Amino acid sequence: MVVRELKDWYPQYNKPLLISGPCSVETEEQLRNSVLPIIDKVDFVRGGIWKPRTRPGNFEGHGERALQWVQALRKETPFKFAMEVATPEHVELAHQYEVDLVWIGARTTVNPFNVAELAESFKGSELPVFIKNPIHAELSLWKGALERFSKAGVSKLGAIHRGFHSYQKNKYRNVPMWQIPLDLKSEFPELPLLCDPSHIAGDRGLVAEIAQRALDLNYDGLMIESHCKPDAAWSDAAQQIATANLPDLINGLLLRDDVFTKENIINQLELIREQIDQADRELLEALNLRMNLVEKIGEFKKENNVAIFQLSRWKEIFQSRQEWADQLNLDRQFVVEVLRLLHQQSVKTQTEVFNKKEQNLNLPND
Ligand SMILES: C=C(O[C@@H]1C=C(C(=O)O)C=C[C@H]1O)C(=O)O
C-alpha cells in the first residue's frame, strides 16, 4: 500500500492537524455558533450530516439540507469542512458540495462489502479520506479498509483512532488499546494517524488527557467534538466540549519532539538504550534456559508416562509468580500475560517432545 505523508498533500500542515466542530449539524444557528468562533484555530471544521445511530428513534442527521447550511456559511466565511460518508450517495454529495475531507466511520469499516463499494465511488477523486478503526479490536480489518481505498486510487489517505467497543464498563466509552494504532503506524510510518479523543472518552472531562496521550505517542493530529451548547446537543452530548473551551484545551496540549536532537540528551539516551539491550539479552538467555529445562522435563515425563499438563504445578507457578511480581513492583496483569505465553510455549515444546519419533537409521521406510 502506497501512503503519503500529510505534508505531501496538505502543505500548510503544522502539527498537530486539528479537526473540530459539532458531532451533528443540528440547526443553522447551532452550526454558525459552533463553527465561527473556531475557524482560525482548526484546520478543518467537522460536522455530522448523517448520523449512524445504534438504535432507531434518535436524530439521524439532516442530510443534504445540512450541507446547504454549511455551503451558505462558507460563502460568508470560508473554512474547510470535513464529514463522515457511509454510502456512495454521500460521496457524491461530498463532491457536489466541495467538502474538503471525509472519513469512514467505525461502523462502516467493519464491513468489507460497504468498504469496497465506497472505495469504488472515490475512483478519480482527489478528496482526502480518513478511515476510523473498526468498532472491534481487529487491526487487519482496519488495514483492509485502507488497502481497498488505496487500491481505488485514493492517495490522500489517513487513519483515525477512535477506540474499540467493549461490553464491559470501563473508564472510557471506547477502550483505546493504543498498541493497535501504534502497530498500524509501525507498518505504515507515513500514514497520517489522528486520534479522536471524544469518542474514546465518551465524557468531555476526559478528552484533554486522551488528546495529550495521543500527542505523547506522536500522533499527527486530533479530531475533537465541540458544540456551542454541548449539554443541549442532539447526539453525543456528554462527550462534546464547549466551543468556548476549545482554545484552552488546544493551548494546554504539549507537543513532543519527534526525535532527540540535543547532544547531551542523545548521550544519556544511548546509555539507557545500551542498558535496555543488555537487559533484553539477559531476558532471552533466561528464556532459553527455561525452554531447555522444559524440554528436559518433557523427556522425563515421556519416559515415565506422565501427562504434560500439570494443573497443581501450574496453579502454584501462577500464584507464586504474581507474588514475586508484587515484590518487584511489576504490574500483575502484565506478568500474568507473560506467564500464559510461557505456559503455552512450554506445553507446545513438550508436545513436540512427546510426538518425536525415535530415529532409527536402520529402517529408512519406518
Ligand atoms: C513444565 C511443566 O509442564 C507444564 C508447564 C509448566 C511450566 O511451563 O511451568 C508447568 C506445569 C505444566 O502444566 C511441569 O510439569 O513442570
From TrEMBL:
Chorismate mutase domain segment(s): 263-354
SUPFAM superfamilies tied to this protein: Aldolase, Chorismate mutase II
Protein name in the entry: chorismate mutase
Coiled-coil portions: 262-296
Organism from which the protein derives: Roseivirga thermotolerans
Keywords from the UniProt entry: Coiled coil, Transferase
Top class in the EC scheme: isomerase
Highest classification ranks of the organism: Bacteria, Pseudomonadati, Bacteroidota, Cytophagia, Cytophagales
Keyword Transferase on entry: yes
EC numbers: 5.4.99.5
Signal peptide residues on this chain, from the entry's feature table: none
